[in-house]
Amino acid sequence: MNLHLIVEVLPLLLEGMLLTAQLTAASVAIGLLIAVPLALLRTSPSSVLSYAVLLYTFVFRGTPLLVQLFLIYYGAGQLEWIRSSAAWSILREPYWCALITFSLNNGAYTTEILRGGIRAVPSGEIEAAKALGMSYALRIRRIVLPAGFRLALPAYANEVVLMLKASSLASTITLMELTGTARKIVAQTFSPYEVFIAAALIYLGFTFLIVCLFGRLERHMTKHQQRAGLKNNSRSRIRAAAKISASQKVAP
Amino acid sequence: MTELQGFGDQIALGAFTTLRTACTSLALGIGVGLCGALAKRSRFQLIRWLADCYTTIVRGVPELLIILILYFGGTVALTTVFGRYVEVDAFAAGVFALTIVFGAYATEVFRAAIQGVPPGQIDAAQALGLSKFCLWHLVILPQMWRYALPGLGNLWLTLLKDTALISVVGLEDLMRKTSIAAGSTHDPLTFYSIAAGLYLLFTSVSLVGLTWLERRADRGVRFAQ
């Protein structure tokens, strides 16, 4: 163990970490934007729409992220109509390819998680909203989405951590994020322990940060339940979590 | 396009390597997971603490980084030990890495599953004077299997997809064979689509198998109609 080396490479690694953070945050944000409408379609009574969304989530959750990444990065350039269109200036860049792949992948997983949350919303709440004369859009906005998101939050926090870890794959298409930077330094110095372990510690810190933030968000969002008594709250949360995890196992 | 431009055999061979890697890691990982779950329930605080550290660290670090640490780190370690350049076998390093990752997640699954076994059953077994081995072999393991199966199934699907990462350190699996074929034929779209299709096939077959296993595991349980 050469501590001196760790101190020396730390600024470089932190620079890589910035790209990792940026990729993760952007993919999670775009993934959520994709997932919210798709999760609503997935839970809609129309089976055609539901199956169409299921096809998307099945393909993206059933194949390795690495294959998806290579398919978009190497495969897209092969199509003449993409090469000649304006999209080529975006799909030529590894950064955009990684961002598009990660967003689509994250969107697929988040869709299924949100679907689990939406299905776990007590039917009485929705019936009450109907009885009050709320329109469909208002019901979705005021009742279904907030309650569903709250129920899906623990699973969603896990998904964000998985996205952080998955962003390390961007190093395979020449992006110099945290793992990519670490690999480059190892190739130059050939001291894998110091550099890779330093990178692992940075990832670990990041994971703790995400877990911590989501813990706070969850406490913030379940404030109204805490007043009703802790015991009752935790039991209903466990029930909802069991429901969501049961709905997850149906698809890959 | 006949015979995938001569790469059909290679890709089939790669798919076989992928399945072999995943199955080996699954078998070893289940063992690690069971030991981890036992360690988390240990009477000794040190062992519980070590098990907690193991699962927390492994679940917070990217799989790719773990594979890289074991592959390059292992090469350096072996080179120091033997005094000459020794390269770690990609299959061994990959299986080792995936076993560690799978074991960490499986530890949590098994721990929850053991908690799912009603404590009355364990009390009853002790009251009947069953030995510790018989208690696990006859009472706890057969029942926790049912609770562990859904979680374990999800982990298997993740494991299957994670094998693609070992291609980064040179294991000749489906992903790597596809990359080689795509590179030499300049037709990445076709070959990566074939790889995606094959992975999807493995996942679908696994899902069917898992559903069957779960139904089989539930056969002794009465559900409310």
How does this model look, in words?
The complex is a heterodimer of chains A (252) and B (225). Chain A has 252 residues and is an all-alpha fold. Chain A has a single domain (3-248), classed as MetI-like fold (Orthogonal Bundle). Chain A has twelve helices and no strands. Chain A has helices spanning 3-42, 47-62, 65-75, 80-83, 88-91, 94-119, 123-131, 136-166, 178-189, 192-221, 223-226, 230-248. In chain A, helix 6 crosses helix 8, helix 6 (94-119) packs across helix 12 and helix 9 packs antiparallel against helix 10 (192-221). Chain A starts with a helix and ends with a helix. The model of chain A has no long low-confidence stretch (mean pLDDT 88). In chain B, 40% of the residues are buried. Chain B is flat, with a radius of gyration of 21 Å. Chain B has helices spanning 8-40, 45-60, 63-82, 90-116, 119-127, 132-166, 174-185, 188-217. By secondary structure, chain B is an all-alpha fold. Chain B has a single domain, classed as MetI-like (MetI-like fold, Orthogonal Bundle), CATH 1.10.3720.10. The N and C termini of chain B lie far apart (55 Å).
Please sum up the structure shown.
The complex is a heterodimer of chains A (252) and B (225). Chain A is mostly helical.
Largest sheet of chain B: none
Shape of chain A: flat
The CATH topology assignment of chain B is MetI-like fold
Average of the residue pLDDT scores of chain B: 90
**Fraction of residues in β-strands of chain B:** under 5%
User: What is the CA-CA span between the terminal residues of chain B?
Assistant: 55 Å
Supply the number of helical segments of chain A. 12
Which architecture name of chain B does CATH use? Orthogonal Bundle
CATH level 1 class label of chain A:
Mainly Alpha
Shape label of chain B: flat
Cα Rg of chain B: 21 Å
Query: Main interface pair?
Result: A-B, 47 and 45 residues
Distance between the termini of chain A: 41 Å
- What are the secondary-structure elements of chain A, in order, as H or E? HHHHHHHHHHHH
**Number of separate domains of chain B:** 1
Which stretches of chain B are low in confidence, meaning pLDDT under 50 for 5 or more residues running?
Answer: none
What is the level-2 CATH architecture name of chain A? Orthogonal Bundle
Mean pLDDT of chain A: 88
Write the CATH homologous superfamily of chain B: MetI-like
Q: How many β-strand runs of chain B?
A: 0
